[in-house]
């Protein structure tokens, strides 16, 4: 978890302010509304992103790009001390999108430059089982710099995100709320209807070691 003193300004000022403000916002809806209002300011703060991206490109200790996350293009920028929210970035090359997935927490996403593509899906609830689910595409968005979109947790927030442009790598910036007690996200295949659990790399290795140990 990045210590706040390691974070350079101007980004640190946002982290401090948001952590302070969110203390008074107890309900998820109030927190979501707050970030819908403040995240666009950060997205449009070009000096903040120049400094963060420059530091990553130059291999500075912060942001730490070594930590392994579920998405390999993910970088954790900030985790609120009480874990009420986190700020993460994701890189997408031209035309690149994530798998179709859900989240254990609410999320708000946008981009500082280019376009951010979001494709949303609805689950066929009558038919849904743990390992099989039919999906219907319900919406397709191309967000402009500074625009944000909210993703609800679990079934109501099934989506994929990525870069709809044919040139240039984009950055997706996401704020997530406190995750529910579920250690995985679900991956959906809209063609075969298969649903699979995806665990963070650390957990995957621990589970694999346990199973390999049983074979010894
Ligand atoms: Fe997502």
Describe the protein.
The protein has 216 residues and is an alpha+beta fold. It is 25% helix and 28% strand. It is built from four helices and eleven strands. The strands form three sheets. The chain has a five-stranded antiparallel beta sheet, with helices on one face. It has a three-stranded antiparallel beta sheet with strand order 3-10-11, with no helix packed on it. 27% of the residues are buried. It binds fe (ii) ion. Fe (ii) ion (FE2) binds next to strand 8.
**Coarse morphology:** globular
Structural class call reads alpha+beta
Counting structural domains, the number is: 1
The CATH homologous superfamily is named: Jelly Rolls
Key features of this structure:
binds fe (ii) ion, 216 residues, 11 strands, three-stranded antiparallel sheet, Jelly Rolls, alpha+beta, 4 helices
Q: What's this model, at a glance?
A:
This protein has a single domain (4-215), classed as Jelly Rolls. The chain is 25% helix and 28% strand.
Topology diagram in text:
Layout: H1 11-22, H2 28-43, H3 46-57, E1 74-79, E2 85-92, E3 100-101, E4 107-110, E5 116-123, E6 135-143, E7 148-151, E8 159-162, E9 170-177, E10 185-188, E11 195-198, H4 201-215
Helix pairs in contact: 1-2
The structure holds fe (ii) ion (FE2).
């Amino acid at each position: 978890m990045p210590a706040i003193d390691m974070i350079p300004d101007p980004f640190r000022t946002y982290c401090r302010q948001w952590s302070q403000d969110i203390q008074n916002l107890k309900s998820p809806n109030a927190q979501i509304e707050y970030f819908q209002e403040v995240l666009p300011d950060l997205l449009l703060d070009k000096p903040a992103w120049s400094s963060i991206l420059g530091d990553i490109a130059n291999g500075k200790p912060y942001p730490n790009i070594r930590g392994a996350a579920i998405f390999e293009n993910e970088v954790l920028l900030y985790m609120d001390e009480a874990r009420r929210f986190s700020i993460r970035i994701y890189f997408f090359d031209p035309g690149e999108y994530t798998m179709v997935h859900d989240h254990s927490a609410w999320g708000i996403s946008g981009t500082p430059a280019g376009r951010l593509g979001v494709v949303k899906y609805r689950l066929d609830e009558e038919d849904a089982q743990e390992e099989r689910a039919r999906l219907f595409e319900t919406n397709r968005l191309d967000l402009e710099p500074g625009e944000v979109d909210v993703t609800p947790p679990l079934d109501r927030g099934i989506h994929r995100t990525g870069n709809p442009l044919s040139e240039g790598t984009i950055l997706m910036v996401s704020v997530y709320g406190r995750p529910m007690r579920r250690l995985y996200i679900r991956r959906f295949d809209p063609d075969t209807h298969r649903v699979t659990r995806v665990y963070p790399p650390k957990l995957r290795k621990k589970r694999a070691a346990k199973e390999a140990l049983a074979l010894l």
